[in-house]
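Translate structure to sequence.
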């Protein structure tokens, strides 16, 4: 399992520039954790987002909640100058209808770019709710039997005659995760991350990071106000941890 928790896009001091932006869905929306706050370009071909402001390490890129079509060419690129004719690093990001994600060998560059060309997009703009660019934290091994719960906020009431009435809410995943063996160093790492993300800063959880077709990534928060570590008698991995994740939008 991997946590994508340290997003270069939302760091203080990061500089973001774009090829174009709508005055009604501006660039600043990319730094809003709510997926209903989207960023839009004013065109569909040769559109880009450039990230700079330091030498940044990255091994994951993610584009979440978008209108990009399957015929688009989407690339993540890295360079040590803001010129893009022949960047030092360039990979195509595979398409998905909701969540584009790509893992690559960790690279460090002064400039990163997301490049999108989608000329067949009938919307005449590119719309994106969230971009992640950064590294990941490799969580300790999980128990093989994890519980992936799918819940709803819908409500229902029943009359005495057997009829029902209700409110249609939305569906979300709310899995329970168990890590049975943690070293003390891993426990301290997780505490440090939790001090930053708490239970109200969404991150990307990859439950099975090399089987994303088995369980797609979860954009969510730690579901609870605490992380409870349990001490064991194992001298090499003396801690265990169980917690829940709640998918958010």
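Result:
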């Amino acid at each position: 399992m991997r946590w994508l928790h340290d997003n270069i896009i939302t760091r203080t001091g990061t500089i973001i520039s774009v090829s174009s932006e709508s005055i009604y869905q501006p660039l600043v929306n990319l730094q809003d954790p709510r997926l209903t706050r989207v960023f839009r370009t004013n065109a569909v071909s040769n559109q880009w987002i450039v990230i700079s402001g330091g030498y940044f390490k990255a091994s994951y890129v993610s584009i979440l909640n978008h209108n990009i079509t399957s015929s688009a060419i989407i690339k993540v690129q890295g360079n040590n100058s803001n010129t893009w004719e022949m960047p030092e690093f360039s990979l195509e990001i595979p398409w998905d209808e909701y969540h584009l994600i790509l893992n690559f060998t960790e690279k460090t560059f002064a400039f990163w770019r997301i490049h999108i060309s989608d000329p067949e997009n009938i919307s005449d703009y590119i719309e994106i709710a969230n971009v992640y660019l950064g590294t990941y934290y490799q969580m300790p091994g999980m128990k093989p039997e994890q519980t992936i719960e799918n819940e709803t906020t819908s409500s229902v009431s029943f009359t005495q005659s057997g009829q029902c009435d209700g409110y249609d809410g939305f569906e979300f995943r709310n899995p329970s995760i168990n890590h049975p063996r943690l070293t003390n160093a891993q426990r301290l790492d997780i505490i440090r991350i939790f001090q930053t993300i708490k239970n109200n800063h969404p991150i990307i959880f990859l439950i099975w990071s090399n089987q994303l077709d088995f369980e797609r990534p979860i954009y969510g928060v730690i579901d609870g106000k605490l992380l409870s570590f349990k001490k064991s008698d194992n001298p090499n991995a003396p801690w265990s941890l169980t917690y829940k994740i709640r998918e958010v939008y």
